[in-house]
Amino acid sequence: MSALYLHIPFCRSKCHYCSFTSSAGCSDLFVPYVAALKKELSSIATDNLSPLQSIFFGGGTPTILASDLLTEILDSCHTLFPMAPAIEISVEANPGTVTEGSLRALAHAGVNRLSLGVQSLDDGDLKNLGRIHSADEAYAAVTAARSAGFANLNLDLMCGLPDQTVSSWQQTLDRALALQPEHLSVYQLTVESETPFAELLRSGRLSLPAEEDVIEMDRRTVQSCRDAGLIQYEISNYARPEFECRHNVNYWENGEYLAAGVSAVSCLDGVREKRTNDIRDYIGKMTAGLPVVVERECLSADASLRETVIMGLRMVRGVCRDSLRSRYGRDVAEYYGPILEKLCNLGLVELTATHLRLTERGRPLANQIMAELV
Ligand code: SF4
Prior knowledge:
There is one protein chain. By secondary structure, the chain is an alpha/beta fold. It has two domains: 3-252, Alpha-Beta Barrel (TIM Barrel), CATH 3.20.20; 318-373, Orthogonal Bundle (Arc Repressor Mutant, subunit A), CATH 1.10.10. The chain is built from 15 helices and 17 strands. The strands form four sheets. Strands 9-10-8-7-6-5-4-1-11 form a nine-stranded mixed sheet, with helices on both faces. A three-stranded antiparallel sheet has the order 12-13-14, with no helix packed on it. Helix 1 (30-44) packs parallel to helix 2 and helix 6 runs parallel beside helix 8. The two termini are 24 Å apart. Bound molecules: iron/sulfur cluster. Iron/sulfur cluster is lined by residues 11, 14-15, 18, 20, 22, 59-61, 94, 117. Residues 11, 14-15, 18, 20, 22, 59-61, 94, 117 line the site of iron/sulfur cluster.
């Protein structure tokens, strides 16, 4: 598997919960950033790369860039990298930044998967989150995406939001499922430090749902998605058969991936590299031909095995024991010994002849279980 991640670090304005690397109000940097990104792409395209199976434009808000700038980046990729015939090319899009025309241009450039950051279909939630769009604009974006020809559509939703109730979550979920997306991602809100939400939480002005309500929201998500024909294949992700996100599956299988752009992380030949978080620094360094990587970590075989297990347990099918053996020469049962036996006896994980996976009972406790295996 060969995958390429491209980070677009711009947004129209910052959402109140967001800790991603993105800046608002820097439209003067769009053109120089794209030039720098293309320069980095030239520098990472080496002769011996296997064909790319996926490209993912993430952010930030990639669709804040005019479609001709995104097309320019994609054209560079086509020139520089070998590509598999059935390559998956995804773009994250904010419903407040797309039109049928802009989406048509992306589809024309080869983008075949659109991931819409809907987050909620309740205007009160969207306002609380500081999103730039309304529920109606999210509906309009879905209609525009379909009209533009997108047959592989993901909707991102968030649950556990301030003032959200189990029934208001169910309503958002039902509305989203009625749009018949091929893929749905549902993330529970976590309040990250140094966000406006963190400050509101500290001062007691953020009213979050009780833990048992969030557990019930999760239970209803699994059930409603199943009823709608979307199969849970990862802790937070649901898809129709054949529509799993291949780019993300590669991450969860701890595969190798290339990356370019501000804050982007690549992992190749056991070396993980992270690029600078600063947009101007990135543009300046790329323009001057200087390195943009600010952190480099060489993973030991041991650390890599544990990561493969932890990431793989996020997938409902779990970790393939044969793949692990051929990659590291170790069997997972022998590697973890009594810790694994204990988790199996508690009914939290299941070890079959072929896979290690979380049980349905273990899935809501994934973080605690992973902490034992890390
Ligand atoms: S649109 Fe996404 S990346 Fe941008 S501020 Fe909101 S959550 Fe963060």
